[in-house]
Amino acid sequence: MSDDARRNVILVVEDEESYQDALNVGLTVEGFVVVGATNIAQARQLMTSAKPDLVLLDVMLPDGSGIDYCRELYDSTRTPVIMVTARMSEVDVVLGLEIGAADYVTKPFRLRELIARIRAVLRRPLTTDGNDTVSFGDLRIDFIRRTVTRRGEEIELSRKEFDLLALFAFRLGQVVTREVCLDTLWWGLELSDTRTLDTHVKRIRQKIEDDPATPQHLITIRGVGFRLDP
Question: Reading across the β-sheet that carries 225-228, which strands appear in turn?
Answer without folding.
Answer: 175-177, 225-228, 218-221
